[in-house]
Amino acid sequence: MIPRKVYFFAFLLSLAFLLVILKLASLQILAKEKLIRYIENQYYTKENVVLPRGTIYDRKGKIFAISVPTITVYVLPQYIKDLKDKNKKVIKTALQRKKELAERLSPVLKKSQTWILNKLKENQYVVLARNLDKTLKPVIEDIRRETKIWNLGIVESSKRYYPMNKLSANNIGFVSKTTGLGAEGLELKLNSVLGGGLGKVLFLKDALDNPITVVKEEKKESKDVVLTIDANIQEMAEEALRKLVKLRKPKEAVVLILNPNTGEILANAVYPTYNPNYYWKYRWFGNPTFRGMYEVGSLAKPFVMARAIATGKVKEDELIWGGNGVVYVDGVRIRDHRPFKWITPKDIIVHSSNVGIIKVALRFKPTEFYSIFTRLGFGKSTHTFPGESRGRLRPDPRPVQIAYAAIGQSWTATPIQVAVAYSAIANGGYLVKPHFVKEVISKDGKKEVCQFQKGEKVLSDKEVKWLKEVLKLVVEKGTAHKGKSKYYTIAGKTGTAQKYDPKIHALSNKKFYTWFAGFFPVEKPKYTIVVFANEPKKIKKWEVIGGGSVSSTVLKELVDRLMFYSKEKPDKIVDKGEKNLHTNSR
User: According to the CATH classification, is domain 46-200+222-227 in 3.90.1310.10?
Assistant: First the structure.
């Protein structure tokens, strides 16, 4: 009997040990993460810190955005006790020590002594300052050592700094102070590349939940980004835009410049703008180049005419009746900006005749007509920028709607879509993918170059040749003549679209969108440019607002400055005096 009892108790003991081993294994393997979190909650407390992000450069190495090392200063007031000597005699009371600390910290933290003393009355972990320059760390350490207040502590963090302030702000965007992540613009789009966000600094805490010391900090990988933007060209574009805004006071305005051969965005000046270093002081962070949808007006006309000539619907030397400035479509009267009689296809574009282009557009079948615009990318987002619009292009087969669409009314596009369409003329007929990122650089120096991919050919060689010839005439002697340069050939088209006024439930005769879109130099284009203004104001009462009187005027000075900067020789024949002037102005 005795051996049976021994075996029984041995079995129970073995079973108990087995259960303990299984429980330990379960805790170590199956419940490991849960157990670690429990221990951390019991013995640690966390402080959020903003992690550094990758740096954003322009194409020549100038810094647009950088994470600057900062420090957070904290203190544990309940541990500031009376200071005693070896004989336990009080040298300084706790209150005296707090007053001394407040006096020493006040000029460093730029906070009043009263404010600091009030903070030191709290009996818990207290943050005295965040986002201090890291160069102040030795100063804080000296104060801690000299006052012997060892519970004055420092946690390293970072903040985002934009050394160029407002320059290209609507493109770069900003990083949220609370999340450490991009909240607007390219900062938002490139969050996965630039890294950042919030890290956790863990403090070992005592039985009263008070932090004692820093244990560890979480970090995330980040990469640097080189943009296609040239800060110098961006400044030229913004200066030209500022002059336009000062003169015309529009609600919104854009000057966009890109490489028509690669799609690289070299500059995108936007109004209104803001300073990302103080983004919380502003209420608007938009970028109408990508998010705005606007009727394009006469910018649509050249594509309609080129397609008509290429498909044989119109002969190049044909004369089209201008109707003395009026045409009726489905009983709707549509006017021209001035009366035309018999007019050639070329002059319809050069002088921007509404009646002439409407008569040409009605020769197309509806599906053929709308394909003119859809193949150029209108109605589709380019996916270049966060929150980008795709515009609105809904094919409507009714003749009156085709008539309005031909003159750039009843459908909308973004300035970036316009730039892509006019780049297709410049580069021989191909769609390009607009982009901001040139290179991504990892911390070990490895570069990922963003390769340019040639897009679909959407304009025939015949269309391209005809468009270049005609759009050059538009600038030399047509509606954009106020923007022509003495030294460089420019091709382009003006556009004016009446805005819909909800107060009168009709198109306004006072509020307009004005455009210029084109490229230069004409034979070997290096730049595509789009100039846009939303509701520009008149300078004189008798003035007629339009793309020619408003948007094209930005061209002349900007084109010359940009080409001189690029060290491009003039492609126009100029006299000796003008050559000397050109040489000196460089």
Answer: yes
